[in-house]
Each structure stands twice: as C-alpha cells, then as structure tokens.
Write a structure and sequence with these properties.
The chain is of the alpha/beta class. It contains 14 helices and seven strands. It has a five-stranded mixed β-sheet, with helices on both faces. The N and C termini lie far apart (83 Å).
Length: 379
C-alpha cells in the first residue's frame, strides 16, 4: 500500500486539533460558509474560541478581512452562549512574506503564525502560549500511521465526551422527586386531620432565635391550603424531575436542602420578627436556580432554551410573587440564589473545573453564614 501523502499544513492542522481536543478539551464548532478553517471552542479556557486558518493571507487587506469575518462569526457565538466578551486565538498557517502580523493589535483577537511543524515543540510562538503542546507527540511509523493514530485519539476523546453527555441527558427514574412530593402530601393530610399544626413547624425568626432551628427545614414541608400544596407539588413534579435527571440524586438532594436553608434565612432576615412562612416554593426556586446554572454551562447543547424557557419562567414567577399578596418572594429569591450557588458547589457532570466547585462551596457557606448573622443579630 502506498504511503499517504500529508502536506505540511495538513500535518500542522492535525497536530493542533489533536492537542486542543485531547489535551485542552476543546470541541469543534460548526460554522457554515467558512472554508479552510477549523473552529474550536471551550468556554472555560482563556481563549474561548480557537481558529486554525489555512487560508493563504497574501496582504494586510486580506488579513483585516479575515479578522473582520472572525469577529462577525464570534458575535453569533456570543449571542448563542450569552457571553459578553470572548477571546479568540486565530492560528494562521499560510501567511505571505509581505504580511506583518506583529503590528496587529486587538483586545480580544490574538494572531499567531505557525509556519513549520517544528514550531509546535520549539517552546516559542504557539508552544509558548501552550507549553504542554511540546509534549504532545503522536507516535507513527509513516504518514498513514500518523493519520490513523491522530484520528483514533480524537475519536476516543469525542466518544468519552459523548458518553458523559448521553448519560447526563438520558431519561432516569426520579425517585427522589416522587419521595419529596409524597412527604409533602402526607404532611398536608396530617395537617388536615389535625395531627400536625403548621404553626408548630413554620419558619419564625423569633422562635428560631430561641433555639427552634428545626423550623428552617420543617417549614418547607407544610402548606397553608389545598391550592398552595397543589401548585407547589405540580411545580416540584415538573422542575424536580428535570433537575434530578440532569444532576443525579445526591446532588439534587443537596441543592434542594441548601435551597431550603437560604430560602428560610433570607425570608427571616428581610421580613423580620413578625413574619411566618411555610411552603416548598423556596426550595423549588432553588431547583430553578440549579437549572439556570446547569443551562448556562450546557448552553451550547440546549440551544436557546436558556433564554426562551428557563429565564422567562424564573422572571414570571418572581413578578407574580411581587404583585400578589401573601407570597414570600424573599424566600423565593433566597432559594433561587442558594440553588444556583449550591449547584456550582456540587458541579455538573462533564462541565466546569474543580476551582468552580471550590468557589461555589465557599460562597454558599459565606451566604448561609451572613444570612444567619443578619437574622440573629441585625434584625
């Protein structure tokens, strides 16, 4: 069999794609209408978008056009990903001798020339920006072997990611949501039978300060009327099943109960000694906050659902809470914030860094500590 012939630019392109996909966790972006360009994205990296551009840049005017074209495409990506700004690394593989990229200055676009395969391991240029690229060697006996090995490595990495995403979005039995609904319904029936009195378990700042800390949790399982519990249980059924599927049971449980804490504490801290609150809506808003965090991290996969479904639902429910009497909207806001931060703390599968989870845990703990202090000391 004849050896496969690979051009210099093709080899550079394959080595770059191999490194960015397998070592830096970038993934391809489909951009219609652009030839001889490979677009890669990772929204958690300093350069959110990397372009490997093998078009021949023959003069500075064409270079300006390439940069303009890049910015126009990035505008679409920013809109889809709800990103205010993006840093772009445009790697140019075929630049004419009369083109001077060293004078190019742009806040968000960095140009980098790669003219030879050796530059990927020289410790200068692109390999200075990404020092680990020096060690990204592909063992191969010939061009065909090189092509097969690079392709296999990329496919294996892509398959690993696909398995994570398929597991994350696959349909699961949501036992925990059904269990929470059952507990709420049983408690309500015991209320109606006169066995339990909501006043003995409701969130009340004065009684909590006297040592009845259990009220912070128990208040989330009592309801004031049949309409109250039906509305909350339907919301829990819809939102809870979604969040339990996406996060998994133990993460879902942590988010739910941390949201109860932040919901109760913010309600007591703001509303003061005269307030008493019950209901699962604060925890449910926490699940919405978790869904917001998850949706932001997976915004490339869920498309416009974050903009057109998740955010409007939160906004509408907060608006209703502020316009109708007897609704504790501060409990809703507390739950929403607690759910978002606690979801950051537990993390979402396949996304985010360990530092995000550490930061989420610290901020969640600080929030609970601050709200507790305000409730106990300042009110």
């Amino acid at each position: 069999m004849a050896d496969l012939s690979i051009s210099k630019n093709d080899e550079i392109t394959m080595r770059l794609v191999h490194y960015f996909v397998t070592k830096e966790d970038y993934q391809p972006v489909l951009v219609n209408g652009l030839d001889n360009e490979i677009w890669l994205e990772n929204l958690d990296k300093p350069y959110e978008v990397i372009i490997i551009n093998s078009n021949y840049i023959h003069n500075n005017e064409q270079l300006d056009f390439e940069v303009f074209k890049t910015k126009e495409v990035v505008k679409q990506i920013k809109k889809k990903t709800l990103s205010l700004s993006m840093n772009i690394l445009n790697i140019l593989l075929d630049v004419g001798e009369n083109v001077d990229t060293s004078t190019f200055m742009d806040k968000h676009v960095t140009l980098c020339e790669v003219n030879d395969v050796k530059e990927l391991s020289s410790g200068e240029g692109i390999s200075e920006i990404y020092p680990n690229m020096v060690n990204d060697d592909v063992t191969a006996s010939d061009s065909m072997d090189f092509f097969i090995n690079v392709t296999n490595d990329i496919n294996n990495k892509t398959e690993e990611k696909n398995e994570i995403y398929e597991h994350t979005f696959s349909k699961k039995t949501t036992y925990l949501t059904y269990g929470l609904i059952a507990i709420n319904v049983i408690v309500f029936l015991l209320q109606e039978m006169g066995i339990l009195n909501a006043a003995d378990f409701a969130m009340n700042q004065v009684l909590v300060k006297q040592g009845q800390w259990y009220r912070i949790f128990t208040s989330a399982f009592f309801h004031g009327s049949i309409i109250h519990i039906l509305t909350n249980m339907y919301s829990l059924y819809v939102v809870g099943k979604e969040v339990e599927t996406l996060l998994g049971k133990w993460k879902y449980a942590l988010v739910y109960f941390i949201s109860i804490i932040t919901s109760s504490l913010l309600s007591a801290a703001v509303n003061g000694a005269g307030s008493t609150s019950i209901g699962a809506s604060g925890a449910i808003f926490g699940l919405l906050g978790a869904l917001l965090y998850f949706g932001y991290n997976y915004r490339l996969y869920i498309g416009n659902a974050l903009i057109y479904e998740i955010i409007p639902v939160i906004a509408i429910n907060l608006f209703i809470g502020f316009t109708l009497p007897y609704i504790d909207n501060f409990a809703h806001i507390g739950g929403l914030i607690g759910g978002y931060l606690s979801c950051m703390a537990v993390g979402v599968e396949g996304k985010g860094e360990a530092s995000d989870r550490v930061n989420g845990s610290i901020v969640t703990a600080l929030l609970i500590g601050f709200l507790t202090y305000v409730m106990l000391v300042l009110r």
